[in-house]
Amino acid sequence: MDAALSGLAGLPTPFHDLFDGSERIFWLYLLSSALIALALMLASGRTWRIAALRAWATAPDARLDLGYFFVNWAVKTLLIAPLLLSAQGVALWTIRGLSAAIDPPFLAWRYRDIVLAYTLALFLAGDLSRYWLHRLMHRNRWLWLFHRVHHSAEVLTPLLFYRLHPVETALFALRHAVVAGLVTGGFLFAFGGRLDLYTIFGDNLFIVVLFSLSANLRHSPVRLTYGRWLEHVLVSPAQHQIHHDRRHLQSNFGSALAIWDWMFGTLRLPQDLAGQAPAYGLGSRGPRAWDSIAALLLNPVLDLRDRVRRKRP
């Protein structure tokens, strides 16, 4: 009993992400996004409307996202994390598998080059794998049942990032473990123990640089674009807002880099949709409402059950 209590005492709290530089809602990222939003508002000459801000912050979807944030934390921390593979385990299996086939080369690169290559490889492999899994969540009709939870919001808020069904959370956690483990194991096999990561606030340098300024504006009413040329390389808030428009759900799957959407034909630029009012949410698709935590958790399961029953002879 005492051991169980001490284990629970060591768990991070739901507010841990606010003080963790590797998390999207790290307080400094939230602050920088708020300052960018304020600067855009002042530059556009719009007046500060407290009533509009209050209406956005207290919208039903905003309240639902706040409540679901705690559910997401509980499911991920107490149920998913203890059961899934770890990146360290995958890395060890990778080293053992490679060592069984060939001898480790222990390449004589300079240390800083190894660290830079590892940091870049981890970022690129992670971002590309996120693109393909996200695309699969849309294109596969079974996985889409669960990913709809994220797209059910009709108002975008930063906490929408955490509105994911536990099935999707588990899939993305598994993706991270496999990809990070394979890359790490491959580098340890090639270079030995001389391995490190360029980090800021404890996370990959490239992720922090690309996410810190505007990542929290992606799920917000602030429409920030980077310009046609740069948006072929980087995902802007406006690009991701297009992805949440139910008329354009099959586009802009990228997380940090837009080059994957560009390369694989799923890129849709804000400049091509200028003047088109967004249509967020799922509209009238399906008979179920998405207006409670219970609905977000149970609707995909109920829809899956109904679909399986329809397929039965």
Topology (SSEs and partners):
Blueprint (H helix, E strand, L loop, with lengths): L1 H8 L17 H18 L5 H8 L2 H21 L6 H15 L9 H29 L1 H11 L14 H26 L7 E2 L2 E2 H8 L24 H8 L14 H5 L29 H19 L2
Antiparallel strand pairs: 1-2
Short description:
By secondary structure, this protein is an all-alpha fold. It is 56% helix and 1% strand.
Structural features, described:
The chain has 313 residues and is mainly alpha-helical. The chain has a domain at 65-223 and 284-311. Helix content is 56%, strand content 1%. It has twelve helices and two strands; from the N terminus they run H-H-H-H-H-H-H-H-E-E-H-H-H-H. The chain has a two-stranded antiparallel sheet with strand order 1-2. Helix 5 (87-101) packs across helix 8, helix 6 crosses helix 7 and helix 6 (111-139) packs antiparallel against helix 8. It starts with a helix and ends with a helix. The model is unreliable at 1-8 (pLDDT under 50).
List keywords for this structure.
313 residues; mainly alpha; two-stranded antiparallel sheet; 56% helix; globular
Q: Tell me, briefly, the overall form.
A: globular
Strand content: under 5%
Order of helices and strands: HHHHHHHHEEHHHH
Strand order of the largest sheet: 1-2
Largest sheet: 2 strands, antiparallel
Q: What is the residue-averaged pLDDT?
A: 87
Number of H/I helices:
12
Specify the structural class.
mainly alpha
Helix content: 55-70%
The N- and C-terminal alpha carbons lie at a distance of 50 Å
From the alpha-carbon coordinates, what is the Rg to the nearest angstrom? Answer: 21 Å
Question: Uncertain runs with pLDDT below 50, 5 residues or more?
Answer: 1-8
Number of strands: 2
